[in-house]
C-alpha cells in the first residue's frame, strides 16, 4: 500500500495538479529527501564552474531554475547533475527534432480521444499523475518520432513546476487495445531512446509506472524493456490485473470513471487545456532551459 503521504493535502487527501506555491511540507520534503539546504546557491555556483570547464556544455548560460531541477534530481550531487545535463545536451544535438513543440492541429487530434491525459488531482504523495492510453495511439497520425516530441514537451514543461521536481511523477499505461502494429514500434532502439530520455536526460523523479490491461504486446515487450531499466526503476513498475488494483496506489477521487474512479471527462479537460498551453510555451524552449512557472 502506498496511500500514506507526507505532503499537505485538502479535505479529500490530495492536492490539485496546478499549484502556485510550495506547501511547507513539500519544502521540508525537499530538504529531507533531496538534500536541499541554505547552501543551494553555492551548489548552483559549483555546477556552473564545472559546466564552464566541460567540453560538451561549456559556453551555455543555463537558466538557474533549470540547473536546480538537475541538482534536486541528483540530490545535490553536482557530478551526477552534470552527467545528466551532458546527456540532455548531447541528445539535443543528435535529435534536435525531439525538442520542438508539436503542431497545434496534431496535438489536438491526439488529445481529442484522451490518448494522453494529466489528472487534475495529485496522488497522496504529491506526484503528478500522467495517463497514457496506449491503445488509442493513432499510429497513422503520430509517428514514434512525434511521440517522442510529445514526451519531451510534456515532461520538460511538467518540470517547470517545483511540485513535480520535488514529488515526481506517477504514470499509468493503459494497454487495452494495443495491436500487432504497435508491437512494430517497440524496436529495441525505440525502447532505449524512450527510457534514455525519461531517465538519463530529463531530471524526472519517476515514482511509479503502473501497467493496466496488460496485452500480449506488453508480455512481448517487457522482457526487453526491463533490461534497459535500472533495478531501482524496475522495482517501481507495477502490473495491475484490474482497475481495482490501482486503488492500492491511488484513491478513487484522483482516477477517471473508466477505472472506477470519480473523475469525469469534464474533470480531465483541465489537464488537456494545460497541455495545449504549455505546448505553445515549448516553442520558445532554448537549450538554456526555461524559468519555473512560479
UniProtKB/TrEMBL annotation:
It comes from the Eukaryota. One of its GO terms (molecular function) is phosphatidylinositol bisphosphate binding. Residues 103-267 form the CRAL-TRIO domain. It holds the Pfam family CRAL_TRIO. The gene is TTPAL_16. It comes from Nephila pilipes (Giant wood spider). The lineage of its organism: Eukaryota, Metazoa, Ecdysozoa, Arthropoda, Chelicerata. GO terms for cellular component: membrane. SUPFAM superfamilies: CRAL/TRIO domain (SSF52087), CRAL/TRIO N-terminal domain (SSF46938). This is Alpha-tocopherol transfer protein-like.
Amino acid at each position: 500500500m502506498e496511500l500514506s503521504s507526507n505532503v499537505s493535502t485538502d479535505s479529500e487527501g490530495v492536492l490539485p495538479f496546478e499549484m502556485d506555491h510550495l506547501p511547507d511540507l513539500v519544502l521540508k520534503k525537499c530538504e529531507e529527501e533531496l538534500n536541499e539546504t541554505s547552501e543551494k546557491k553555492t551548489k548552483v555556483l559549483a555546477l556552473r564552474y564545472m559546466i564552464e570547464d566541460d567540453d560538451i556544455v561549456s559556453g551555455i548560460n543555463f537558466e538557474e531554475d533549470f540547473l536546480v531541477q538537475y541538482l534536486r534530481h541528483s540530490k545535490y550531487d553536482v557530478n551526477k547533475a552534470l552527467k545528466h545535463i551532458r546527456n540532455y545536451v548531447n541528445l539535443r544535438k543528435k535529435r534536435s527534432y525531439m525538442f520542438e513543440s508539436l503542431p497545434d492541429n496534431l496535438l489536438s487530434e491526439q488529445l481529442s480521444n484522451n490518448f494522453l491525459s494529466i489528472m487534475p488531482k495529485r496522488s497522496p504523495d504529491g506526484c503528478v499523475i500522467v495517463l497514457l492510453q496506449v491503445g488509442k495511439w493513432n499510429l497513422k497520425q503520430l509517428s514514434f518520432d512525434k511521440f517522442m516530441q510529445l514526451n519531451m514537451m510534456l515532461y520538460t514543461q511538467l518540470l517547470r513546476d517545483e511540485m513535480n521536481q520535488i514529488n515526481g511523477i506517477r504514470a499509468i499505461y493503459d494497454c487495452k487495445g494495443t495491436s500487432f502494429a504497435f508491437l512494430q514500434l517497440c524496436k529495441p532502439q525505440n525502447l532505449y531512446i524512450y527510457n534514455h530520455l525519461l531517465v538519463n536526460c530529463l531530471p524526472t523523479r519517476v515514482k511509479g509506472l503502473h501497467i493496466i490491461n496488460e496485452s500480449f504486446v506488453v508480455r512481448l515487450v517487457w522482457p526487453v524493456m526491463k533490461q534497459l531499466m535500472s533495478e531501482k526503476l524496475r522495482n517501481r513498475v507495477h502490473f495491475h490485473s484490474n482497475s481495482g488494483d490501482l486503488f492500492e496506489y491511488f484513491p478513487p477521487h484522483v482516477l477517471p470513471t473508466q477505472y472506477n474512479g470519480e473523475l469525469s471527462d469534464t474533470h480531465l479537460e483541465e489537464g488537456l487545456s494545460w497541455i495545449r498551453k504549455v505546448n505553445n510555451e515549448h516553442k520558445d524552449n532554448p537549450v538554456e532551459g526555461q524559468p519555473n512557472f512560479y
